[in-house]
Each structure stands twice: as structure tokens, then as C-alpha cells.
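Folds abound. A case:
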Amino acid sequence: RGTAWRRYELAAVLRADMRAAKRKSSREVEKEQGRREMRDTRCRSRGSDRVRARYAGESAAGIRLSMESRSATSESAADSVELLPQSPFTRRISSTPMPRAHREYYRALVTDAVVTAVDDLGSGTSSFRSNLLSISLQLPELNPALDVYDRRVLLSFVWDIIMALAAPEMSSADSIRKPITVRILTQSATMFGGLPLSVAGLQKTLAADLAASAPGWEAAGQPDLSKRIRLGTLGDSASTAKDDDVFIMLCPTNATSAPVISEIMTCVNEHVNNRPVLVINGRLDDVPSHSGVMQTRGRQARIDFMKSLNCIACIELLYKPGTWFPVRGAVFRMYPGPWLLYLRRETIRDAGEKITALEDRLVEEAFLPAWTGPSRPTSAEIRDAFDELRFREKREKIARGEESTMFSLPQDARRVLMIAGVATVALLCWTLIAPFVFQSS
């Protein structure tokens, strides 16, 4: 009886200790959450540089003044990074987070393409179908369909474009371009009844960036720059002015029962006139909803509007259908260059090689040129280009004696030949057996 009682007392003491530890841990968690909320509130109330570094992913001085990072052209950026042979891509393009030097290289490419397109559109020397320009950047950190999507990376691209247009003397020392007024239009949750997660908060973030940058611009002798960079809301007629030179629509996204493409079409037709419009990472495909929203009515007008967009910068990774891994290839275009299609290849290194750095992996990647054209390749053109490149590689391997002839055909062709062979054998067997079957019956 005494032993059982001591065991009961010991169990009670252990339970009491566990409850006290649990209460203590919960109080510590609540205190830590309170401290975090106070820090965030303090940062937001000050509009400090910490908020800018948090949302734009750079130092506050680099975001505010934008002199050093935006003074380098795409050629100097390409010299500072290692590009894969025969391609404009960096190593480990699908890795996250992307190295800062690689990110700056792609930002310089996109900024140069945008500035060239806007200048050509203003001078009338371009071959664009309309004044509507678009950018499609689908790197892993810029793809809203992936869980590694990062708005800070997107905003670093956007601020580079804005500064190159509104303050060319700050982005390039030898620039002779005239600064222009830029209007950034984003979606508002109050107007569209809620926003997708990839778009929510962009308007507030841009407003915080603009407010925190104004003192730095005044100190740098650019007090009018905050007046040349303006924010607005899609669908609000008061958000546009007659002296706006370029309109940037940031990530317009159709949602269920909240189509944004109709607001874009109204803004372009009634307020923009012939001024350049730049759509960055727009997701304007129809999202079927109830009550006939984004269905048959007006579909042809929406399709025609999307066809009128002129893509001037495109970096899209191609994946296996239905998955986000592995990367099969990439579509690339930077104005005024042509559209390029690349097939991704992986080669296994020798296991005996010594690895001296983290970047030296056992797998080496390469992007091989597969197609070039004046317009974006379709799905059929991508498939045919990849099959042709694989078939050409196999023929070269056969010529070098590295592979036998029986595997020289593409996989689809081998499958068709196998099915045709089986059907031929079945037909032959039926031809031989059928007379005896009918004779016996």
C-alpha cells in the first residue's frame, strides 16, 4: 500500500510540473508574439528603412536612391555572373532563393527591354500592333502558383523599371532620356471584394516604399521625383491624369466573380488613349464563375484584347505537364530580340571528381537552343522543336558510335511503331486462323 501511494504522489507531482511548464511556455509565446507586433507597428508607423528592406529585398539606400544597382547595364551585369553556354540563363535558375547577382542580371535585362520598347513606341519606330505592352516573368520566385513566390523580388523588378523611366539620370550616368511621369495601377480589395493572395497588399507596399523614398530623393536633389511616380487603383477613373506618360498595371489577376480584365479594357479605351500601357505578370485568363461572369458573354472581346498585348520581356520555365518539376526548358524573349526556345539537359558528373564548393553539384545543366521565331511558340511548336532536337542528338550519338540504331527514333515514334507492329501481327494471325474457324463452323 505504501509503494502504491508513493507512485501516486510522484505521478501527481509530474502532472503538476507539466501543467506549469505548459503555462509558462504559452505565456512566453504570447510575450514573443506581442513583441513582434510592437516591432511591426513601430516600423510601419515610422515608415522606416526597415520596411523598405523588408518588402523590396535590398538596403534602404539602394532602394531610395537606386544609383549603384541601376547604373549597370545588362552587359556589365552579364559579366558579373556565370551564364550557361549557348543561353542567356544563369546556373541553377530554378533554385530559391536566387543569388543576388543573378537577380540583378535579370532585372537589368528586363529594364533595358522596357526602356527600349517605350522609346520605340513613343518615336513611332516600333512594329507593335497597339500601345499595350506586357511582361511575363515566371521564375520560381515570381510565379504565384508556387509556394516560393516572393513579392519582394517582384517589387525589385518593378522599382528598377520605374526608376529607369521616371529618373533616367539616376539609373544611368550617361542617360540623355527625358524623365517621364509613371502611373502604377493596382487592384483594390474594396473595389473587387477581395484579392488573390499574390496581389493582396501590393498597393500598401508601394505606398510605403514611395513615402520612405521621398526624403532620400529630396536629399539627392530630386524633389520632383515623388510627383512623377504616382499610384492609382484599377477601375477608378480618378486614378488617371492627362499628364501621365506611362501606365504600369502590376499583376492584374482575374478571380472568381471578380474579373479585372473588364476594368483594364475600360481604362485603356476611355482614359489611356494612345499612351503606353505596361502589364506586368498579368493573369487575365477567364475564371468561370456563377451568374454568367467570365463565360460566353464578351469572351471574344476579351480574347481580342489579350491578343493585342505585345510581350516585350518573357522568361518562362517549362515543366512536365501536371507538375512543377523538373524543368524541361524555357521560353525567352527580350525586346527587340526574337523569341527563343531552349531545351534543358542534365548530365551526371563523374563521381570521382572533387567537389570544392557548394555550387559544384553532381548534376550539370545546360539549355540548348531548340527554336527561334518572331512570335511566341505554341504548344505544338514546342513539342515538335524538342522532338527534333532530341532526334538530332540521337543521330549524332549514332554517328559517333555512342548509341545503337534501334534507339535512334524518338519515344513517340517508337510507341507508334510498336502499336503498328502488334496490330500487324494480330491481323496476320486472324488471317491465318479465320478460314479454319469458319470452316469448322
